[in-house]
Fold:
Amino acid sequence: MIRMLARSIREYKWSAILSPLCMVGEVTMEILIPLVIATLIDKGINAGNMTAVWQQGGLLALLALCSLAFGVASAFFASHASTGFARNLRHDMFNKVQTYDFSNIDKFSSSSIVTRLTSDVATLQMTFQMCIRMIFRTPVMLVMALIMAFRISVKLSLVFCVVLPLLAVVLILLIRLVHPIFERVFKTYDKLNNVTQENLHGIRVVKSFVREDKEVEKFTETSESIYKDFVKAERIMAFNSPAMQLSVYTCMIVISYLGAKLVVGGSGLTTGQLTSMFTYTGQILTGLMMMSMVFVMFTMSRAPMRRAYELLTEEPALKNPENPVNEVKDGSITFENVSFRYSGTAAKNALDQVDLHIRSGMTVGILGGTGSSKSTLVQLIPRLYDATEGSVKVGGVDVRDYDIHALRDQVSMVLQKNLLFGGTIKDNLRWGNPDATDEEMIHACKLACAHDFITAFPDGYDTHIEQGGKNVSGGQKQRLCIARALLKKPKILILDDSTSAVDTHTDAVIRKAFAEEIPGTTKLIIAQRVASIQDADLILVMDGGRVVAQGDHNSLLETCDIYREVFDSQKKGGLE
Structure:
């Protein structure tokens, strides 16, 4: 897992290497400073030798300046490496999400993906920065300080052999208690993001139903859960500081008592060496405290590491074959005994034993009640999902044998939920064809009956569209999405209930334009209104995931009860 995440360091590896090297230099200077102080005291101050005082004092100042320089350099390189690592990791995760198929997206909620790309990466950035500094600093500091302490006095240094194992036990216990809490916290962050995202997307509904207080209550409840978990974790980790302080003062007292006896007893320990011993004791225990901080941070980051790893290692459910077909010959579509279910644990098939043949250039209407799997049927054509059983063929070739991008480039799909992106109208239209000329955009918009309302805007095609298309009406949004799909000049055009928000006259004009302007394109129109599909070459009636009837308008009126009931109810409603 760590090796996978470490790939995101890439061009910042030299900064990641130089930071700990500079840190080692800083630690080396800090280890040498107590030795100089001991010499300053013993050979300078106590001996009354001012030459030694000036020499050792100058050396002490030089070591301090070197330590400062190494520390600043280490901090700079660590900051550069950690921010670069976070940028690359976020970029890698987002790129990976772009390769996902619908089934992969269904596995991760959008709020969870947002959390992983934001707060999880921020936590990993802080952990990485701390690690490349402290993980190298702490062991080097501990080892070098212990060596110097044992060189000064083995007897005094034995106190560390008792204190260090006790601290290690305390640290391990704290980590074991805290880790499950942090696991739970990051899952709650997903829920918090979901509540926020849902509220912002549905803010108009919230306000229209005067449910602001309820939404605040939901947010507060989730936020309170995070607060309580963090408080619980902090309470446990609060034992870390007293344990460290107890160890520091215990060591100081023991060393002071035994050291004073050794100095007074004339056993070879000098005043300067005892002073250095105090300094090394502080360095050793400070190093332990830093190590505990690293372990705490590492414990916090274990959950984000796992979550980032899950996102990066998730394999797209749909993959290109080894030797893909790159050209779609025509817009013919064939379903051969196709069944489909969204997951292996689903109770029943969403589609069941569908057999269907559509010739290239045909206009096909699809009618059915809510939940009859109309959208599921058409989503198998551009291979947004793979059929569980049977095969779907486009242009006489199984869709699983095509290069995915080549297939989807020839299948334009206007989904039920029309989505426009922030930018100008031109920017949104060019999603269909980045190289489209102004004339091509105008032609596509005329076919979609969008040109008139676009030119009515003061800025015309340069009119700014807010995120999600909130500053245009539902019908305008649908027509812009249809124009965007037409700019691809596809062999297959799928309209998934995408004219529901336009009036019947505009709907008829759009269909007439399709018939006259793009006769070679196969058109599949999912609609709730019979009027939208009654002139189609073929009409499919779906119910319960099956195609229960197919034919033209007149034949279905005679043979299909479902179609006749829908037609009669809409006709009656129209007369009334």
In short: The chain has a mean pLDDT of 82. The two ends are 66 Å apart (CA to CA). Residues 50-98 form the longest helix (49 residues). The CA atoms of residues 93 and 312 lie 6 Å apart.
